[in-house]
């Protein structure tokens, strides 16, 4: 039976167009999903939109639209963006979907019946912009600890989830299990949120744009309680490849990865595991990544008015280069800089000089010396053996990085792989060779170009397609195809993988 892998992104607020920060989370999810697929896993990749709540309602009213039509328009743009980036999700969940609403309302009833929910009065500090609540200890200055905006004081009837009872349990889980990667974030999570853990207010009466509680129609479910459960409810959709029980039962062997940005770690690593525990389910596995920051180190965010429109970047540089930059140049887990200059540097220095040129050089050597037919390797050459050993080592360490979700390290291995092939050309100097030696060298290079292109394909899908056309090859990327010998294949015309970005080009917009 095939091994199974379930990967999720946060569901994004459709109050505006998505920016590059959102693209980052989704790119990582797509990368690991494609990688697992190439390993033969059955994969399920979930993304979507978090459509309820006061903030969305306000935005819709500002545009004189009803909230559902407002968000539906924006969601078309989300999907268009994912499409332009070759992001292959399996389900796009909307929290306004009938099946999601049904699941969340029923889940409320079950938790209520099990005694995990009670009714009381809620008074707290609320950040409208982040849809987040803080206690006075967490926000002593009455400013949002996340975004710095003024917090409102709220007091209303509300249902509460008995989170406090799980304080010891969650502390122990965070300290002694694998809920959160990277581990160094656990200490700050415990200090800032677990030590002062309060029951969670999970309903509102002050507005009505949300999922109604069956037991009390004046209440709607608080947006995080609604949103977090998308990771379960989506599995009740007819198009879901996995069932709820299959993924979430305690003995499940479905591998799991939930990607989130570091600012929403507390929801995913405290409330979310407790909700799952109440339901008798397994723990989640969360990877918290850092933020994309500007050249001057400021978090990219709509409220700071410094966001970059990914569509413009894709139009100029292409989806592949952008995805490669985000994965490679931002150390997984840490904040990382983005600017057009840095992206251009990466494209010219790596994708053009090292990768694209390697292919172009090889193409012209084979067309010149062998009429465009890939020669065979039928000798034993010590440089070739040495190269293959080195590449095997690099490949193995790439697999280890990927299996540990160490994305930015994994691409460093891929770059090293390309550099080794270039180094092999420099050492063997094929232009000075002929006969069997030349055949063996060029055969090795072509086969290794295919191998590295296959390994790069979860990020550089278009390069994979171009190389497959060049090699007259028509199969989906799969690690089982590594090591294929292309001897005897008549090469087609090569389409340049990447072109140099000229510095004086008038394409700067930030
Ligand atoms: N709706 C909630 C998530 C609910 S999940 C049950 C939400 N949505 S969001 O639209 O604000 O975007 C969430 C994701 O975008 C987070 O993973 C967040 O970290 C990411 N990013 C937003 N700005 C970012 C950067 N500048 N850099 C990297 N990621 C950032 O939160």
Tell me about this structure.
- There is one protein chain.
- With 510 residues, the protein is of the alpha/beta class.
- Helix 2 (54-62) packs across helix 3, helix 11 (310-317) crosses helix 12 (319-329) and helix 16 (435-456) packs antiparallel against helix 17.
- The protein folds into 2 domains: 4-289, Rossmann fold (3-Layer(aba) Sandwich); 340-481, Isoleucyl-tRNA Synthetase, Domain 1.
- The chain has 17 helices and 15 strands.
- Bound molecules: 5'-O-[(L-methionyl)-sulphamoyl]adenosine (MSP).
- 5'-O-[(L-methionyl)-sulphamoyl]adenosine binds next to helix 1, helix 7 and strand 12.
The major pleated sheet works out as:
6 strands, parallel
Whole-angstrom Rg: 26 Å
CATH class membership of the largest domain:
Alpha Beta
Count of separate DSSP helical elements: 17
Question: What's the number of domains?
Answer: 2
Identify the overall geometry: elongated
Looking at this structure, what is the CATH superfamily of the largest domain? HUPs
Question: Termini, distance in Å?
Answer: 50 Å
Beta-strand fraction estimate: 5-15%
Bound small molecules, by name, code or SMILES, are: 5'-O-[(L-methionyl)-sulphamoyl]adenosine
* Number of distinct beta strands: 15
Can you tell me the CATH topology of the largest domain?
Rossmann fold
Strand order of the largest sheet: 3-2-1-12-13-7
Structural class: alpha/beta
Q: What's the helical proportion of residues?
A: 40-55%
Low-confidence stretches: none
Mean pLDDT: 95
CATH architecture of the largest domain: 3-Layer(aba) Sandwich
């Amino acid at each position: 039976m095939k091994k199974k892998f379930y990967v999720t992104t946060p569901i994004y607020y459709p109050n505006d167009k998505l920016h590059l920060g959102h693209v980052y989370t989704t790119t990582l999810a797509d990368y690991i999903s494609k990688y697992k697929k190439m390993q033969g896993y059955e994969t399920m990749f979930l993304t979507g939109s978090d459509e309820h709540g006061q903030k969305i309602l306000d935005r819709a009213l500002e545009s004189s639209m009803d909230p559902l039509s407002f968000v539906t328009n924006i969601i078309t743009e989300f999907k268009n963006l994912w499409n332009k980036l070759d992001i292959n999700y399996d389900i796009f969940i909307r929290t306004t979907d009938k099946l999601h609403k049904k699941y969340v309302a029923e889940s409320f009833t079950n938790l209520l019946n099990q005694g995990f929910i009670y009714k009381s009065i809620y008074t707290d500090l609320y950040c409208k912009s982040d849809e987040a609540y803080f206690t006075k200890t967490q926000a002593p200055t009455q400013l949002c600890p996340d975004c710095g905006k003024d917090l409102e004081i709220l007091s209303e009837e509300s249902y509460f989830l008995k989170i406090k009872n799980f304080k010891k349990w969650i502390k122990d889980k965070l300290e002694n299990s694998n809920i959160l990667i990277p581990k160094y974030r656990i200490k700050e999570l415990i200090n800032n949120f677990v030590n002062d853990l309060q029951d969670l207010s999970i309903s509102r009466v002050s507005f009505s744009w949300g999922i109604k509680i069956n037991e009390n129609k004046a209440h709607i479910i608080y947006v995080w309680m609604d949103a977090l459960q998308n990771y379960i409810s989506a599995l009740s959709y007819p198009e879901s490849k996995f069932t709820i029980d299959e993924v979430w039962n305690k003995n499940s062997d479905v591998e799991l990865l939930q990607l989130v940005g570091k600012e929403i770690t507390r929801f995913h690593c405290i409330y979310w595991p407790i909700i799952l525990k109440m339901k008798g389910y397994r723990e989640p596995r969360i990877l918290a990544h850092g933020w994309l920051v500007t050249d001057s180190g400021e978090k990219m965010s709509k409220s700071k008015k410094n966001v970059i429109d990914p569509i413009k970047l894709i139009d100029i540089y292409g989806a592949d280069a952008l995805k490669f930059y985000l994965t490679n140049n931002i150390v997984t887990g840490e904040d990382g800089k983005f600017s057009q200059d840095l992206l251009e540097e990466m494209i010219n220095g790596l994708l053009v000089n090292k990768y694209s040129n390697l292919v172009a050089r090889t193409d012209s050597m084979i067309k010149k010396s062998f009429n465009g037919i890939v020669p065979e390797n039928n000798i034993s050459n010590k440089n070739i053996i040495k190269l293959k050993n080195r590449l095997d080592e690099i490949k193995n360490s790439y697999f280890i990085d990927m299996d540990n979700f160490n994305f930015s390290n994994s691409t460093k291995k891929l770059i090293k792989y390309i550099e080794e092939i270039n180094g092999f050309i420099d050492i063997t100097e094929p232009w000075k060779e002929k006969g069997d030696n030349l055949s063996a060298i060029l055969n090795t290079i072509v086969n290794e170009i295919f191998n590295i292109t296959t390994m790069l394909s979860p990020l550089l899908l278009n390069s994979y397609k171009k190389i497959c056309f060049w090699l007259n090859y028509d199969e989906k990327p799969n690690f089982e195809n590594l090591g294929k010998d292309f001897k005897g294949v008549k090469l087609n015309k090569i389409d340049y993988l990447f072109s140099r970005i000229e510095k004086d080009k008038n394409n700067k917009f930030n």
